[in-house]
Amino acid sequence: MLHIQGICLGPGKSSSVQDSELTFGLRLGTKQGVETHLFRVDTAKDLSTWSHLLVEGCHNAAELVQEVTTGQIQYFATSRELSCSWNGQQCMLSVHIDNGFSLFTEEAGVRRHILLQQPFERLRMSSDDGVRMIFLDFGGPEAEIQLDLHACPKTLVFIIHSFLSAKWKWHYVESFYNVTISE
């Protein structure tokens, strides 16, 4: 669920709900790039329900998973290890929903040396080249990093977006209304 990004299409801006198809799309991050799947629904209520359930599913998955490390991301049936490279050095990237981003080296499955740590709150921008590079900007020239993921970065980008969305919901929406949001 964390590898999915929802896009809600609905009716076009110039058409009404009654005279157009209601659709939504899902973008799935894969090692070959992004796959998009389009779904049609019958009513605006169905579109709203699907959108709500998909967003809630991503938030629940983020809460359940908590942390993803580049070596753990598996593309369905493939189980190849996906480390990354930073400044010419092989390393691993961990994205933790509470602790943020950590770059580290690993030997025999044990974390050895932390190369970089940044909290989510410092992330100013993320982007990718759609092929294998991800760019993370934590503010300031020293805090801009380029990582070669050796595979399409979209899966990791979608996971980062899912974590950020879940964090926003938990920390801002719940504290604003002074309630706990649960299903």
Instruction: Compute the average pLDDT.
Output: 79
Proportion in helices: 25-40%
Query: What summary fits the major beta sheet?
Result: 5 strands, antiparallel
- N-to-C CA distance: 17 Å
Secondary structural class: alpha+beta
Discrete helix count: 2
Task: Provide a descriptive summary of the structure in words.
This protein has 183 residues and is of the alpha+beta class. Helix content is 25%, strand content 37%. It has two helices and eleven strands. The chain has helices spanning 44-65, 154-177, and strands spanning 4-8, 22-30, 33-41, 67-69, 84-86, 89-96, 100-107, 110-118, 125-128, 133-137, 144-148. The strands form three sheets. Strands 4, 5, 6, 7 and 8 form a five-stranded antiparallel beta sheet that branches. α1 (44-65) crosses α2. The chain is globular, with a radius of gyration of 18 Å.
The gist of it:
With 183 residues, the chain is of the alpha+beta class. The chain has helices at 44-65, 154-177; strands spanning 4-8, 22-30, 33-41, 67-69, 84-86, 89-96, 100-107, 110-118, 125-128, 133-137, 144-148.
Fold blueprint:
Blueprint: E1 4-8, E2 22-30, E3 33-41, H1 44-65, E4 67-69, E5 84-86, E6 89-96, E7 100-107, E8 110-118, E9 125-128, E10 133-137, E11 144-148, H2 154-177
Antiparallel strand pairs: 1-2, 2-3, 4-6, 5-6, 6-7, 7-8, 9-10, 10-11
Features of this protein?
alpha+beta, 37% strand, globular, 2 helices, 183 residues, 3-stranded antiparallel β-sheet, 5-stranded antiparallel β-sheet
